[in-house]
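Quiz preparation item.
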């Protein structure tokens, strides 16, 4: 939930009895440290800090130029031009010793990895500080690697999940396992706790994955409409409208597969064809610039409006109230 999660949201969830989370994969070290301090000022309870561990992007000027040239007519429609040169806007945690040093110093209760795993010495440094470690898997092979690396728990991310697929290799095959099948497969095989993620929006969904053997449910989309999230008005309006029933998996926005509400950007992705996008997050630099150009003229259809397949079940209530609802609903089943 990078860009949407806030210290206020994470603290509200933790104070209500869940494990709140802030995503710092899109943040620099100073901003991430400030976010962690803000959460700690709001709650004495445990919370999670999520980091991105994507492969180091390959800078290919020719491919970048071809991509921006393809997007140029979209920019021109809003009186703008694409960036002259694309940048690597997010640093992978695997390439960010300063972020590691900060996390080792402040020692949040939980750190979770998305898109892969950092090197063994990084994992050891965090474990030596008593930090509980989690990592996302989209298939059993990734889950085995997570367990072999000494991670404390695996997040089973089904294809229903909103936002970026946590797959280690975005260019590799994707079996597109659903949350139910993946959770059950990992529960049967893994020797570490399994946390189910993807399409879970209410207590019935929580109860279902617990019945499958998961120890917990991880929920993102369910909290986007909470007043504590940083989602803008257009994002909230789209979640409340018909687009919620039509989520799309696309790589066009960021360079990695991600599930979003159907909008003008996801429709553009249908015409990518055999064009090679820049690596994540280089492609995202172009995507964000296009959104800024369109938004300046009142068009919000190029935003990264990430959402899972359960989006029509979303509820716009304070985070603490939502956690209480989830608990009561799960108890009824």
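Solution:
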């Amino acid at each position: 939930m990078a860009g949407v999660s806030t210290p206020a949201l994470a603290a509200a969830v933790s104070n209500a009895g869940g494990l709140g989370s802030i995503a710092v994969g899109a943040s620099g070290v100073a901003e991430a440290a400030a976010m962690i301090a803000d959460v700690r000022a709001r709650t004495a309870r445990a919370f999670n800090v999520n980091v991105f561990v994507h492969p180091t992007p390959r800078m290919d000027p020719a491919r970048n130029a071809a991509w921006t040239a393809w997007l140029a007519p979209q920019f021109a429609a809003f009186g703008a031009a694409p960036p002259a040169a694309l940048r690597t806007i997010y640093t992978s945690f695997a390439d960010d010793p300063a972020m590691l040093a900060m996390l080792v110093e402040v020692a949040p209760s939980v750190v979770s990895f998305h898109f892969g795993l950092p090197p063994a010495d990084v994992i050891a440094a965090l474990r030596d500080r008593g930090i509980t470690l989690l990592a996302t898997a989209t298939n059993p092979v990734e889950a085995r690697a997570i367990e072999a690396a000494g991670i404390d728990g695996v997040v089973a991310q089904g294809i229903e999940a909103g936002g970026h697929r946590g797959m280690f290799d975005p260019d590799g095959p994707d079996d597109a396992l659903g949350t139910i099948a993946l959770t059950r497969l990992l529960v049967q095989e893994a020797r570490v706790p399994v946390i189910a993620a993807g399409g879970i929006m209410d207590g019935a969904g929580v109860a279902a994955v617990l019945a499958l053997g998961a120890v917990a449910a991880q929920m993102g989309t369910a909290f986007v409409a909470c007043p504590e999230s940083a989602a803008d008005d257009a994002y909230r309006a789209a979640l409340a409208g018909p687009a919620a029933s039509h989520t799309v998996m696309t790589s066009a926005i960021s360079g990695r597969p991600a599930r979003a509400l159907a909008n003008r950007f996801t429709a553009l992705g249908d015409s990518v064809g055999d064009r090679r996008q820049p690596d994540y997050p280089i492609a995202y630099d172009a995507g964000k610039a296009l959104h800024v150009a369109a938004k300046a003229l009142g068009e919000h259809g190029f935003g990264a409006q990430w959402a899972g397949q359960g989006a029509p079940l979303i509820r716009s209530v304070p985070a603490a109230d939502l956690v209480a609802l989830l608990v009561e609903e799960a108890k009824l089943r």
